[in-house]
């Protein structure tokens, strides 16, 4: 019975160490799934509302356009604020 308890303890320890990775993976999956659900429908709704191709392109690329210049600054800021929390230091 000791081996079973040891295996459970090792599994919990592994999941505790990988908790940050799992959270990031889930957040990425949810984001990609959301884009995957919206992408096929956005052109249909945009055309119904009278949007031209340029507006449709801006709607798709709006996040990337705003994210690109801000990513280095926000990445550094969040790293400095959450380093101890996410690494357990």
Report Rg.
Answer: 21 Å
Q: Specify the oligomeric state.
A: single chain
Biggest sheet details: none
Number of domains: 2
User: Which residues form runs of ≥5 with pLDDT under 50?
Assistant: none
Number of strands: 0
Q: What sort of overall outline do the alpha carbons produce when their principal axes are compared? A: elongated
Give the H and E element order. Answer: HHHH
Topology, pairings included?
Layout: H1 2-17, H2 19-38, H3 42-48, H4 53-87
Account of the protein in words:
There is one protein chain. This protein is an all-alpha fold and 89 residues long. The protein has two domains: 38 residues; 38 residues, no CATH class. 88% of the residues lie in helices and 0% in strands. The chain is built from four helices and no strands. The longest helix has 35 residues. It is elongated.
Key attributes of the depicted protein:
89 residues, mainly alpha, 2 domains
At a glance:
The chain has 89 residues and is an all-alpha fold. The protein contains four helices and no strands.
């Amino acid at each position: 019975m000791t081996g079973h308890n040891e295996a459970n303890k090792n599994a919990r320890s592994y999941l505790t160490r990988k908790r940050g990775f799992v959270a990031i993976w889930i957040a990425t999956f949810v984001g990609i799934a959301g884009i995957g659900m919206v992408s096929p429908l956005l052109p249909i709704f945009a055309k119904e509302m009278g949007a031209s191709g340029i507006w449709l392109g801006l709607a798709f690329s709006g996040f990337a356009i705003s994210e690109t210049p801000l990513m280095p600054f926000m990445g550094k800021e969040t790293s400095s604020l959450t380093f101890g929390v996410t690494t357990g230091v």
